[in-house]
């Protein structure tokens, strides 16, 4: 039985905890990771690097994200999270501050890799910590709301980049994200470190184990579907503004507008998929999620230009966080005593496929392919992921 009944958690306390988690995800994902997407066309324009080198910079960041998630698998206990979470936020801030001072491509690669490590750790540990706290209070259905921070972060990143585009250039374009990260990150992590989470106790009075096999006949299809999702969504989330710049005439509103559409679609997405999962079940909701996301990436391939770009931005932006929160909840239901560890494992797999996406794009461009046709890789990956969702059993059947 949970150590604390639902009645012990006030609406104000619940809202504050979810807000703290959302702000932390806004910082590391919106201001750390995905701000690179709207920045990429400007940094290419400023001569810091070309499109292929930009893809390599993105790959280094995703490699760091993968390594951060792997670290979170190794150090997954609550006491580990309390140490690694503030350290990772500090690394995030320091790397952004250093990016404002450097133009050397090797240094940029290194800093983006370190920022990815910090991002991977935080993206696993902050939601996992909150989910364990919510489970102990019978409030796990609210867990998906923490991902609203990612959507707001995309909107903030879009505003920071487009709003300072005319008076910042080169490395200076990183300053807004670095400055805003400091107060937001400090408040969010300070609030989460105060959470009281009781240890799980088995029927015999011993502490329940949080280790064991993560990969079995129930979870392997879920991991495979999540791998497809990671590779499928990362191409538009990395290259959509650059694709808009290549396909549209100069000063077309969609050159910056695609990322704004993604951000606006992302903000309500966690609430929508959180509610839909509660209403029809997380597994049916995940199948629907894959279908819509697949249609979004396919639109960019079939209809080059404004129509395809708008559909891709809206449909991918409105679904990718739903994939994350639904998969995390299904996975925890399949392995209920390994929450943080399972979250880290799924994010690590997601991180690996996200790292592969920009690398494949770089190879495709180097071989003479176009960025628009490279989105076909995402279509194939999402079709692969959708297929394996149908092999995931209902958690209650285990």
Short characterization:
This protein has 15 helices and no strands. With about 400 residues, it is mainly alpha-helical.
How would you characterize the overall build of this protein?
One of its GO terms (molecular function) is transmembrane transporter activity. Helices cover about 75% and strands about 0% of the residues. It has one domain (about 10-195, about 215-395): MFS general substrate transporter like domains (Growth Hormone, Chain: A), CATH 1.20.1250. About 55% of the residues are buried. By secondary structure, the protein is an all-alpha fold. It contains 15 helices and no strands. It has helices at about 10-35, 35-45, 50-75, 80-100, 105-135, 150-165, 175-190, 220-245, 255-265, 270-280, 280-300, 305-315, 320-335, 340-365, 370-390.
Q: Features of this protein?
A:
mainly alpha; Growth Hormone, Chain: A; 15 helices; globular
């Amino acid at each position: 039985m949970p150590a604390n009944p639902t009645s012990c958690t006030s609406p104000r306390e619940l809202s504050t905890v979810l807000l703290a988690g959302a702000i932390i995800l806004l910082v590391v994902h919106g201001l750390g990771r995905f701000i690179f997407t709207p920045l990429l066309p400007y940094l290419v324009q400023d001569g810091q690097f070309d499109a292929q080198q930009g893809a390599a910079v993105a790959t280094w960041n995703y490699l760091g994200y993968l390594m951060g998630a792997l670290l979170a698998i190794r150090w997954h206990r609550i006491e580990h999270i309390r140490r690694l979470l503030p350290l990772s936020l500090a690394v995030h801030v320091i790397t952004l501050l250093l990016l404002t001072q450097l133009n050397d491509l090797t240094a940029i690669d290194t800093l983006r890799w370190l920022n990815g490590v910090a991002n991977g750790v935080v993206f696993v540990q902050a939601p996992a910590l909150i989910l364990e706290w919510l489970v102990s209070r019978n409030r796990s259905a609210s867990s998906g709301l923490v991902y609203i921070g990612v959507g707001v972060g995309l909107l903030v990143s879009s505003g920071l980049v487009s709003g300072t585009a005319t008076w910042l250039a080169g490395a200076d374009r990183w300053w807004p994200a670095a400055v805003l990260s400091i107060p937001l990150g400090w408040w969010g992590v300070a609030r989460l470190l105060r959470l009281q989470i009781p240890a799980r106790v088995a029927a015999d009075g011993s502490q329940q184990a949080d280790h064991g096999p993560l990969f079995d006949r129930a979870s392997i299809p879920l991991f495979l579907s999540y791998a497809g999702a990671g590779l499928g969504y990362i191409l538009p989330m990395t290259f959509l503004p650059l694709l808009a710049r290549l396909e549209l005439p100069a000063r077309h509103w969609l050159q910056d507008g695609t990322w704004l559409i993604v951000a606006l679609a992302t903000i309500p997405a966690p609430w929508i998929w959180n509610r839909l999962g509660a209403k029809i079940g997380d597994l049916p909701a995940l199948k629907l999620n894959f279908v819509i996301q697949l249609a979004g990436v396919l639109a960019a391939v079939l209809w080059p230009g404004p129509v395809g770009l708008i559909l891709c931005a809206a449909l991918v932006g409105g679904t990718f966080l739903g994939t994350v929160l639904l998969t995390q909840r299904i996975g925890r239901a399949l392995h209920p005593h390994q929450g943080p560890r399972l979250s880290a494992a799924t994010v690590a797999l997601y991180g690996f496929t996200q790292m592969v996406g920009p690398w494949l794009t770089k190879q495709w461009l180097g071989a003479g392919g176009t960025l628009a046709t490279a989105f076909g890789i995402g279509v194939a990956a999402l079709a692969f992921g959708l297929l394996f969702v149908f092999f995931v059993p209902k958690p209650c059947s285990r």
